[in-house]
Amino acid sequence: MGLTRSKLWTFNKSNNKKPQLTSNDEVTFDDFQILRAIGKGSFGKVCIIQKRNTKKMYAMKYMSKNLCIQKDAFANVLREIQLLTRLEHPFIVKLWFTFQDEEDIFMVVDLLLGGDLRYHLQQEDCFSEKRVYFYLCEIALALDYLHSKYILHRDIKPDNILLDEEGHVHLTDFNIAIELKDGSEANSMSGTKPYIAPEVFECALDRRTGYSFAADWWSLGVCIYEMISGSRPYDIHSTTSLEKVLDFQRKPWPSLDSATLSAGFSSLLASLLTYQPSKRVASLDELKKCDYCAQTNFDEIFRKSVKPPFIPPRDQLNCDPTFELEEMIIEARPLHKKKKRLSKRQQQSIKKGHLNHQNSSSFSDSGSMMDENSPIKKCLQTIDQQFIIFNREKEMEKQKFLEKEKIWEQELEKVIN
């Protein structure tokens, strides 16, 4: 649990070899070594792990099944997994594995040791125009890809933009993302209030029937303003009334220091923070038409040929160190003691004659047995049945086999003809 970030980064790079795949499609908790906790969200926590057979490092998000039931969050978790299994983009976090056990749901994703932009804003207050524009371009490419897949993220904010070791961005947290097909629109108010677009609030007040992909571009505009100035454009908080929020958003945002911000960048920012979604820059093609972007080669940015203007420090973990202390000292069910805890439960169950095919849905959070007909037990059984098992390593292996098979067929056809 005492690994430093520099050791983790070096170890991850040195062991980034082709995986030696196992014969089983599913992975389990036993396939990984838990190294340290690095973050938490509303529905789960994140830790650094190492896959035992390949020595490759990942980040693992885990969520209590009981907490998912209490917060009615399982549908969102399931939708997030469904979306992430379809996505593969250089600026979007990649999902590698999903699995479950008696207590938790697990999602294993890319390990991004550069920290999120919220952390870096807290350390530096604000960023240079060059650096902010670099982030803008990479995030814009990610949004363009998402929207081409009919996916609206709905929670673009610095906390959900991670940096890798080289300084490239990766969008994460698709917990409230939604798929909009066939011209459909979203209509529920979802997101983080200071970053939510005006049309979303208008829907909540029944002044509009729906909203679409332009909402993500407004959120990006708020992020850009915050990164360049160190504060958000409007004084909006979770308790601010919807009417007050719309009053703020209709007014011009506070002007920025012209000595540190070019007129062209200010104009670009204004095109993102436009109240009416129909008049807002809301696609990559529209962004490219802005004068400020005229000389930008987005293909090179996509290929990561453009060097990031900021490289996260490699001699430290770019996150709040208290997460690890919380996991070890405060957490009621610390992850590093899971195997011992579950083994003890199983032994108790055997002694009581209640072993039920190793299905610990029979247990409550406290470890006591639950009645077979309890509502929580039924919800846990539903989670067990509906949860999606995913293994990207296996998917890649199958894809490579299909490609080789196609080549063999083509070569065989040439020989026959």
From TrEMBL:
Which SUPFAM superfamilies does the UniProt record give? Protein kinase-like (PK-like)
Protein kinase domain mapped to chain residues: 32-302
Q: Which InterPro entries match?
A: Kinase-like_dom_sf, Prot_kinase_dom, Protein_kinase_ATP_BS, Ser/Thr_kinase_AS
Q: Name one GO molecular function term.
A: G protein-coupled receptor binding
The residue ranges flagged as biased composition, category Low complexity, are 360-371
Q: Which GO terms describe its biological process?
A: G protein-coupled receptor signaling pathway; regulation of signal transduction
Instruction: Locate the region Disordered.
Output: 336-372
Superkingdom assignment: Eukaryota
Give the record's family classification. Belongs to the protein kinase superfamily.
Q: What is this protein called?
A: Protein kinase domain-containing protein
* Gene designation: 107360879
